[in-house]
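Project standup — Tuesday

K.O.: blocked on the structure for the chain from last sprint. Re-posting the sequence here as requested.
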Amino acid sequence: MRKGFLLAVVVVLVLAMAVPAALALSDNQKVELQKLYEQQHQLRLQIVEKQAEGGIITKEEAATMKERMADGWEYQQERMSERVKT
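H.V.: unblocked you, prediction finished:
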């Protein structure tokens, strides 16, 4: 009974260490994700600009949205740079 419990604990510990390593992104994948997020950000900015041009939103609303998006993008870049380092 005791050996079975000890074996189960060892198996759980090994799996707990192996799973995060298997799910981690490579540096190349992280860089690729950064590029995709940059494209996504640029597209969102373009969408807001087109909405303002088309009268869907006002120029003031567009400016506010772009400002908020810039703040969010800055935060996201900080987080991404932390992830690339690790």
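K.O.: great, moving the ticket to review. Residues 25-85 form one domain. The CA atoms of residues 2 and 24 lie 34 Å apart.
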